[in-house]
Amino acid sequence: MIKGIAILFAIISTFPQAFAQDSEDYISLRGTVKSLKTNLPIPFANISLKNQPIGINANEEGKFELNIEPEYQFDTISFSAIGYVTQEFLIYSYLAANDKVIMLVDTAYQLDNIFITSIPAKEIVSRAIRNIPQNYPARPYMLKGFYRTSFRENNQYVRLLESALEVYDEGFETKNGISTRHQKMRKSFDYRKYKWTESANYLTSFIMGDFIRNPEGNLQDLFGKWNYNVRGVTFLDKEEVFLIDANIPIDNPYESYNAQLFVRIKDYAILQLNYDYKWDPNYFPGIDVDSVTLKRTNVSIMTFYRQYRGKLYLSYQSREAQWNIYDHSKTGALVSKMEIHDELLIHKVDPRHGKQPDEKLNEYGDIYKEVSRYDKRFWKRYNKPVETNLFRSIKRDLEKETPLERQFRAEKMEDVMK
Question: Which structural domain range is residue 223 located in?
Fold first, then answer.
């Protein structure tokens, strides 16, 4: 008994060192998630507190940072990804470890002839669509997360906006039932050479691009046009998951539509979707705005969901869109190639839905015109993606004239007070 008490005291005595942080009011969990088999990072792996509405996705390099309240210090942290065996650790033991690299064991894809022959791929997707009301929340809820959008013009990053975002959703059965609020915002200067009056709110189109949340305009309407094929079966938390490839058969070589769906077998819940659309701009009309014409050439979307109390909530979404810009004043000449990259990283779910923001998500207007007082201390502790090569490129390009921190602080006080 005395020996057991001594061991317990030794463990407890390590807590102050393990929890030593830059700030006393939160604990920062950092690390990298890798495959044990290949030693390569696992992009967008899920890191969450077990049985809690808190979690985050790693970036594309497998790196993560999750800031949590001290009250969760005795909870369990879980690391998971489709195709890998889940790992769990007590938070205090994870913090005390020297090596913050989490190695997940691969679970090989396998072809299951029984499932493939008895349930056609199209029927699996049909069941997944029918089961949306039971697999995703029907009651109002709130998501808290981080939103980033960046513009790249002719291989040069020219604009960046980041927001600490709250997304209020009236439930998956309520069409367009989404409201948002920017808790804090920061942005760079606008260095675009070709500017136009924004006719669409990029945040709106991005959030409504969640094909589960908006099935009327995506999954259901497009369902009959797609060909589906079960590529195999993999696992998540010891539960079988279908990997389904999909494409729309097209008679011409000027456009292509491809997708991947990961569907859990036990309840036909869609856990992840990847979409990739391509168009040849020479064969499709564009959008005329002011003195330019915009023609979309490619859109890629990735969407991940995290489970909490039997329901699946959005946890991460990214979108990359590429456009060609043609100048009317130069007889329609191609003058620029533009890329827009958006990502939304959710770190907390509030199923009690909290307070609804005042306004619905507006599909019109330029989000970049919104302003907020820059709060450096707030952003230091706020949950956001760990820097990647992509973000370092954005920062390097935007800082060629002015440090990014100075651009963040450049909001005029009279604008903030409006």
Answer: 121-416
